[in-house]
Design a protein that fits this description.
The longest helix has 18 residues. Helix content is about 35%, strand content about 15%. The protein is α+β, with helices and mostly antiparallel strands and about 190 residues long. A hairpin with a 2-residue loop joins strand 3 and strand 4. It has a domain of about 55 residues. Strands 3-4-5-6 form a four-stranded antiparallel sheet. Strands 1-2 form a two-stranded antiparallel sheet. The protein is elongated and about 55 Å long.
Length: about 190
């Protein structure tokens, strides 16, 4: 696949504005649908076949991220399929407390990693709290090991300098790994 990418993407006529691949999922931002067709045709010059999905209302899912484009900026948040019914390890299950805490940590880590603004992060936290509540979790951590509870709080205590936000903003044309698409792109400072 890398050989094919190197061959096709060196052509300036075919090169998309944004190209990100994870295993067999590819996110591209192109000029038009005809540009996408040309890119698909060039990529299919090998034995590989590609399918595509166009954005709907300027939103498209990529892996576990919902990417929306507004005012030449990307906004990202957690994506859940329509078939997701919000089930996770139940709080009343016969599992060690550390597994239950791992469920909470995983949800928080995913929200922190995927949400591009504090507003979206807090919206996702509301959804996480509802999912956890539906699965029997309470608002407090109850367990035999208070040190485990204290380490969890310390792990998620994030020091954010005033006026700074650790969540990167992406502008249209930027790479999804945070590299700017052009030298004039900046990351705005957000208030937490």
């Amino acid at each position: 696949m890398c050989h094919l990418e190197n061959k096709v993407l060196q052509n300036p006529e075919l090169r998309p504005f944004t190209y990100c691949r994870y295993v067999d999922d590819i996110f591209v931002e192109v000029r038009s649908e005809s540009h996408l067709m040309e890119l698909q045709q060039a990529m299919e010059s090998s034995v590989l076949k590609f399918t595509y999905e166009l954005n709907l209302h300027n939103k498209i899912p990529f892996l576990d991220i919902l990417i929306s484009s507004e005012d030449d900026q990307y906004q990202t948040t957690v994506y859940r399929k329509k078939t997701d019914i919000g089930r996770c390890l139940n709080a009343a299950s016969e599992c060690p407390q550390r597994y239950k805490l791992s469920v909470i940590r995983a949800y928080l880590r995913r929200a922190f990693r995927n949400c591009s603004s504090w507003t979206l992060f807090h919206q996702e936290l509301s959804g996480i709290m509802q999912i956890l509540s539906n699965n029997g979790y309470s608002n407090t951590v109850q367990g035999e090991d208070e040190e485990l509870e204290a380490s969890t709080v310390e792990e998620w205590s994030v020091v954010v300098p005033p006026g700074q936000c650790p969540i990167p903003q992406l502008n249209a044309g930027d790479h999804l790994d945070g590299r700017p698409g052009n030298e004039n792109a900046t990351t705005p400072n957000l208030q937490p």
